[in-house]
Amino acid sequence: MPVFASPLSVLTARPAALAVLLLAVLTVSAASPGSAQTLIPLPMEGTIAPLDEVEMDRLNADRFDAEQHRGNFVELTASDPTIISSLRPIEARGRPAGSAIRFDGESRILEFALFVPQPSQMRALRVSTLSSINVLPERSKFRVYINDTMVGESQLQNFTEFGVVDFPVGASVVLAGQNHVRIELVQYHRIFCGPEASFALWSDIDLANSGAVLASAEGISGQDGFMMGIAAAAATGTGIEIRGAEGLADYRDAWISQITQRISAALGGDPIPFRFTEYWSVQGQARSAARITFLPSTVNRLSFRTSGDGAQVMVVEFVPGERPHALPEFENILPRVAERQQPRLIDTEREVAFSEFGFRTTEVRDRYARIEQRFRLPEDYVVLTNDKAEIALDYIYVPDLPDEAMLLVHINGENIRLLPLRGEGGQLIEQFPVRFEARLLHAGINTLGFEAIIPGDPADLPCPTQDAPMLAIGQSSTLTVPFSPSMYLPDMHLAFTGLTPDSVQINDMSARSFDNNDVVTLRAALSGGENPETASLNPRLHLLSLDDLGSIPMGTYQFSRRAIETSLLGEDTDIQGIDSPQAPQSALLNITERRDSNAALARGWDWLREGFETTLQWLHPRVGARLELWLADQRAQAILIQLDPAMPNQLWMVRAPGSDISAISAAIVAARTNAEGPRGQVSVLDRDGNWQNWLAPDRQPVLLEPVTLSNVRYVVGNYVSAMPIRYVAGLFFLALVSALFALRLVIATREHRQ
User: Fold this and answer.
1) Which of 352, 483, 600, 660 is 20 to 30 A removed from 397 (C-alpha atoms)?
2) What was the pLDDT predicted at 657?
3) Which of 528, 529, 530, 521 is nearest to 260 (CA)?
4) Edge-to-edge strand order for the sheet containing 368-377?
C-alpha cells in the first residue's frame, strides 16, 4: 500500500522502514514552530493582547464573504497587446471575463498557458500583482516556472495598486508556440496565525498585463499575432469580435459555430466571449485584440492581417451560398492548451484507490487547507437506504500540534468524520475506517473533500516559516461504494453534463433576453467537457425570456412568475399565495371584539384544521409552496429549470436582465469539469458565481432494470426510503384492518361457543 514521502516523490511501498523515515522527517518539522519563531522580522514590544471578538468577526467575515475569493476587476490600460503575450489559465474557475485571477489562502499553485511566437524575442516574463494589506511582505513571495524551469522569485509587496515584476528569461527556456507556466505562491499574515488569519490572505494577478514581454512588435503578425491576440482578448475580457457575419446568409450559424467552437475547445479554461460588430464601425472603448472577419470571395481560404487599430485579424474568405468547408490551416494553428474532461468514473462494490480517480499524495503546510477531488459514479446509481460506504484512510501528522488541530472529511459538502490530530503524531495511520451513509453519494460527479484546521501557536503572532509538512494524506487510501440497482432519480444533472453546442435551442422570444453574442458565446463554451454517455441522450437547453415562462413543462409542480422575478430582479416582495407575517394588531381593537360562546368553538375548529393541514403537508408535502419560498430567498444571475420528470433530457434557462453571459458561461464550464454544479429540479447561479440547488422532496426513483431475487431488496429499499411516511401509513392501515378482522374473528368464535 503506498505511503507518502517527500514533496517531490510518491512512494508506493509501506514497509516499516518508510514509516521510520517519515517519523524522522516530521519529527524535525515538529520542532520548527518553536525554533523558527525567532526568525520573524518584526519587533514586538510589550504584551500582545489576545484576539477580541470584534477582530475575530472581521476575520470570519473574510472567510464567509464569497467576493473575497474572486479576483478584482481590472480596468483596461494602455498596454500594447502586440508586445505582451498574456497568460491564460488552464483550469476553468468560473471567473468572470476581465477579472484578475486570485490566489487565496496561505499557499496556492496555479498553472497557465503562454504563447511565445519567437523565443529569441522574449525579453522577460512579467507578473502584475496586487495583495491584501494583511499580507506580510518580508516573508510572502511567489516563484515562477516556465516549462518546469524556475525563472525567478519575488516578494508580494503591492498593496494599493497593481505592480509588475519582470523576470529575465533565456531563449533556451522557452519553446516556440505554447509554453507551460506555473506560479507557486506563499503568503503569511502580518499579525495573526491560524485558520481565521488565512481567510484574510489573497493576491491577484492581472492577466492582461502579465505574460511574455517581447523585445519589439516586428514580425509579430500572421498566425502568431492572432494567437497572441486571442490570449489578450481572453485576459482583458473584451472578447473576440466577429465582423461580416451578415453576409453568410443561410449558413451563418454553421460558419460561426465551426470557428468559435474550435477556438473555445482548443484553449480550455474559462470560455472566451464573442461579440458581433458592424463591418464598418467606430472603435469603442472595448477594443478587442483579436477579430474574425468574413469576406465573400470566389474561394474558401484563410489569411491573417493586422488592422489599423492594432487588432490581429483572421480573414475568412467564403463562397456565398456554399456550405462551410474544412479549414486545415485554421485547425493546425490552435494547439490544445487543456482538455475539458469529466472526472474519472469509478467502480462500485470494490476498494478503489484514491490514485485511480486522480488523487495524489498531498502534504499540508498551511494552517487551513481544503483539498478536493472529484470522481464519477454511474448515471444510474441510486442509493437512498442506510447502506454504508467506507473510506480506508492513510494519513500521518507531526507530533505536538495544538490540541484543537483536526482533519475533517467531507462527501459532497457534508461532513462525515472529524479526526483529531493528536495522540499519534509521527505514526503512519493506515487504512483508518471512515464509514458514512451511501445516500450522500449521487449519480454523476461527486466530491471527496478534506479540511485541515491547525490553530496557530501562538495565534497572536505571525506564523513561523513552515518548510516541512504538518499533515499528509496518501493516495493509497481507498473508497468502497455499495451496490446500487439500475435506477434513475429525477435530476437535471443528467442533461446538464451532456450538453453540447447543438443542445442550445432558441425560439422567437429568446432574443428578448439572449442576443446573438450571448448565443454564440454560450455554444462555444459548451465545446468539450461533456459526458459522452449523457450526450447520447440528445439533451436540450432552451433559452427563455421572462415573458416565455409559460412554455416550461411544470409536471406536478408550480411556481409563479413573481417568484422568478423576485430571484432575478432582486425585488423584496411578498409572493402571492404565501403567508407573510402580519403587522401586530392594535390593542385598542380588542375592545370591539365580540366575546360570545362561538369564539372558543371557532378557535378550536381553526386549531383542528391547521393541525390537519400540517399533517397532510407532512404526509404529502406541497412542494410548490416550498419552491416559491426558496426562490424568494435567492438572488440569481441565471436559473436552470427541469420540473417534469418525464423530460429528463430537457433544460430551460432564464437570466437576469443585464447579467454577464461570460460569467454565466464560465460557471457552466467550471461546473461540468471541476466545481459543484446544478442538481435537482431548479438550480440558481447566484451573484457570487455559485450554484444553489433545490431538490423536490417528493421525487420518486425510476427502475431501469427487471426486478430479480438479487436486487429486489435494494429496489424496495429505495422506493420505501424515497417517501417512507406513505409506506408507514399504508402498513399502519393494513395493520388496523388486520386487527379488525382478528377482533371480528375472536368475537365470532366466542359467539359460536356460547
Assistant:
1) 352
2) 92
3) 521
4) 368-377, 444-453, 406-411, 414-420
DSSP strand pairing (240-243 vs 290-296): parallel
Domain identity same for 205 and 90: yes
> What is the rounded CA–CA span in Å between residue 453 and residue 406?
5
Rg of the chain over all Cα atoms, to the nearest angstrom: 31
Q: Are residues 324 and 365 in the same domain?
A: no
Q: Which of 91, 90, 52, 99 is nearest to 71 (CA)?
A: 99
Nearest C-alpha neighbor of 344 from the set 199, 242, 448:
448
What is the reported pTM? 0.78
Q: What is the pLDDT of residue 80?
A: 47
* The three cell numbers locating residue 303: 489569411
Q: What is the DSSP string of 96-108?
A: PTTBPEEEESSEE
Amino acid at 719: Y
Q: How many residues does the chain have?
A: 754
**Are 666 and 674 a contacting pair, CB within 8 Å?**
no
DSSP output for 605-635: HHHHHHHHHHHHHHHS--HHHHHHHHHHT--
Q: Return the C-alpha cell found at 61.
A: 467575515
Could you give the CA distance from residue 529 to residue 309 in angstroms, rounded to a whole number?
A: 35
447: CATH: 2.60.120.260
Question: What is the predicted pLDDT for the residue at 7?
Answer: 35
Q: In whole angstroms, what is the distance from residue 545 CA to residue 534 CA?
A: 26
Which residues are 652's β-sheet partners? Answer: 542, 641
* Residues 526 and 674 occupy one common structural domain: yes
**Series of mean pLDDT values for 10-residue runs along the chain (754 residues):** 38 40 40 36 41 52 44 49 77 70 91 89 93 95 96 94 93 90 95 94 92 77 83 81 88 89 80 82 68 90 85 90 81 69 91 96 95 94 95 96 95 95 93 96 94 93 88 97 95 93 93 91 89 92 93 85 88 45 40 50 76 63 72 92 93 93 89 82 92 90 93 92 80 88 86 66
Q: Distance between CA atoms of 724 and 716, rounded to whole angstroms?
A: 11
Residue 167 placed within a domain: yes
For 232, phi and psi rounded to 5 degrees?
Answer: -70, -40
Which residue shows C-alpha cell 415562462?
549
Task: Tell me: do 730 and 639 sit in the same domain.
Answer: no
**CA quadruple 319, 324, 326, 328: dihedral sign:** positive
Final residue in a domain of this structure, among 466, 488, 510: 488
Pairing of strands 504-505, 540-543: parallel
